[in-house]
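Schema walk-through. Below, the input block comes first and the output block second. Nothing else is stored per chain. Lengths vary across the set, and this one has 140 residues.
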Amino acid sequence: MKISTRVRYGLKALVYIADKSSENKLVRIKEISDEQHISVQYLEQILFKLKNENIIEGKRGPNGGYRLAKEPKEITLHQLYKILDEEEKVIDCNESEEHKAVCGEGTCSGSCIWGKLDSAMTKILEETTLDEFIKNKDMI
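--- output ---
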C-alpha cells in the first residue's frame, strides 16, 4: 500500500497551515509551496478540495491566505484521505485481473486478506486525528 502524493502533500500542507494558524496567521499558498517544496499549481488543486469540504478556509486579497476551518482534533486522517484520494478504499484488493474475478465486493471483505487490511487501515485512519498527526510532524 502506498499513500498517494496528493494525500501526502495535503497532510504536509495542513500541518504547516495548522502550525501557522496557532499564531492566528493566514498562510499564503506561495509560502506553503516554498516551505514544503510543493508546486503552487498542485497545491492549488489540493487546497481547493480541502476548502470545498470545509477543512480550511481561505481569504482572497493582499492580506489573504488559508487557515484551518476546524480544530485539528475534529479532523480525522480518514476524512482527509477520502477528500484527497480518488480511490474509495484505502487498500484496494483488485490489483490484478485474475484476482478481480476471484475477489468480488461481497466476498472480499470477510475472507480476502486485502479486505481485512483495508478494514484495519481504515479503522486506524478513522481513529487518528490531524492533531495526533501534527504531534508527530517531525517524522513526516
